[in-house]
Every structure is written in C-alpha cells, then in structure tokens.
C-alpha cells in the first residue's frame, strides 16, 4: 500500500541479547534561508535623479550615475562593505550638456529585513570633483552621504535584483568658499551577484 508522504529510512540492528532495535535516520536537508546565506556580494547599480537642489549653482540640474560595490555579511541581518560611485551632472545652459560630476568612495552599511527581502542602506565617504567650474578646481574633495530607506530585493538563482524607489543623497565635492552641494532624490536599480541573497 502506498504512503502519502516519504518516511525516514529505517535501519535494524541486533543487540547482544538478540532483540532488534530501530534506528531512524532523517535524510531530509533543510535549505539555507535567504537571510542566513553567507558569502561576499558584488553589485553594480545605476541611479537617476530628476529632483535635485543645488545651492547657489542654478545651472546644475538633474543627475544620473552608476556604482560598483562589494559587501559581506556580519551576523544574520547586517551587510558591511564599500562602493565607488560616479555621479554625472546635466546642465541647464543654452546648449545643454553634461559635466563629469563627482566620484565618491563610501563605506556601506545595510540592514536586512523580512528574511532578506527588504533592505535599508546608509553610505558615507569623500566625494571628489571631476571637472573645473568657474569657482573650483578639479580634484577638490568634499563629502558624500546617501540614505536608502527601503530597498526591495528579488532573489534569483544567479543574481538578486534590488529596487530603491526613493533615496536621499548629498553629493558635496566642494565645502569651502561657495559650497557645491547637490541634494538628490534618486531611484536606484541594482544587480547583486554572490552569496548572502
């Protein structure tokens, strides 16, 4: 007669007094849940900011960019690592155009929620100006900061897709004289490859 569910394997052993004992061995293996998987994560991302505020720099407007990051899990729900980001700035001039913007190198700390399906991320570090302005020279170093309150993660066998619908970023490569501080409200799409999904 067939059984509706698989039963653990049964091994019979004879003891010294001739009686038989049953040793049941459970062959089932529980998969590792997403929140407890281990391994480094390498990620590529692209961001777009249509809403920005630039103090005293009215010719600077929207921005877009990309970044490469590497993180590792610390404990069950935390990720720590670093990223390099290039933020490209568009300009509102008569002819329009693009400026090289800023290069930022940041430390990244992320907290995972709901078994790794949601993520909150904080990044901070130096930001370097990549072009000459009327007031500042290329190579000036300032500050970078970004808060991503809610990132939604979709795990797949080979990669994880992460969407941060709204983030808050401050890209400030110039902090002296007349500061060059760009406040951005971004949408970020990221592809993660590696463990810890």
Would you give an account of this structure?
This protein is an all-beta fold. The protein has one domain (35-194): Beta Barrel (Porin), CATH 2.40.160. The protein contains no helices and 10 strands. The protein has strands at 9-14, 20-25, 41-54, 60-74, 78-91, 98-113, 118-129, 141-155, 160-174, 180-194. The chain has an 8-stranded antiparallel barrel. It has a two-stranded antiparallel ribbon with strand order 1-2. The radius of gyration is 26 Å and the shape is elongated. The two termini are 42 Å apart. The model is unreliable at 1-13, 27-36 and 55-60 (pLDDT under 50).
For this entry, give a set of tags.
single chain, mainly beta, Porin, 8-stranded antiparallel beta barrel, 10 strands, disordered N terminus
How many separate helices?
Answer: 0
SS strand fraction: over 45%
Largest sheet: 8 strands, antiparallel, barrel
**Tally of strands:** 10
Q: Supply the number of structural domains.
A: 1
Order of neighbouring strands in the sheet with most strands: 3-4-5-6-7-8-9-10
Main CATH class: Mainly Beta
Radius of gyration: 26 Å
User: What share of residues is helical?
Assistant: under 10%
Cα separation of the termini: 42 Å
Basic shape: elongated
The CATH topology annotation reads as Porin
Topology record:
Layout: E1 9-14, E2 20-25, E3 41-54, E4 60-74, E5 78-91, E6 98-113, E7 118-129, E8 141-155, E9 160-174, E10 180-194
Antiparallel strand pairs: 1-2, 3-4, 3-10, 4-5, 5-6, 6-7, 7-8, 8-9, 9-10
